Amino acid sequence: MSYNIRADVFAPALVIVAPTATAISVVSSGVLPITQAGAETNTLAIPTFLGQKLTIFVDTDTSGARVITSAQRINQAGNTIITLTEVGDFLKLEAITIAGALRWQVVANDGAVLS
Fold it and tell me: What pTM, to 2 d.p., does this model score?
């Protein structure tokens, strides 16, 4: 018996760095640990490949919120804005296609406010 195991299942996650007022990189899958200190913002472009994964969470919070505006809807309700305010707020997105176009889809959410 043989098994076909994808390399990305066991590969360490790529840590994405996106300071406030910058675009979040979407060239690969990865994790974005956020350290926030005040009112901060980012933008999120559409994904670059089917199955791409992006995990965003608040690691350190001294004050304020991080508001991320997506170029396209991220859930069935059509929300495009993600607001993270507390340590542990967590959002996981995965790239799917809708009518052939790549779109982010929320896979898991714990504490992130979507609007």
Answer: 0.89
Asked whether the predicted pLDDT for residue 5 surpasses 70, the reply is no
Q: Which residues of 42-63 are buried (b: 16+ CB within 10 A; e: fewer)?
A: bebeebeeeebbbbbbbeebee
Task: Give dist(CA 11, CA 50) in Å, integer.
Answer: 18
> Taking a C-beta distance cutoff of 8 angstroms, is the pair 74, 112 a contact?
no
Instruction: Identify which of 94, 88, 90, 89 has the alpha carbon closest to the alpha carbon of residue 107.
Output: 94
Res 10: pLDDT: 60
Q: Which domains does the chain have, with CATH numbers?
A: 7-114 (2.60.120)
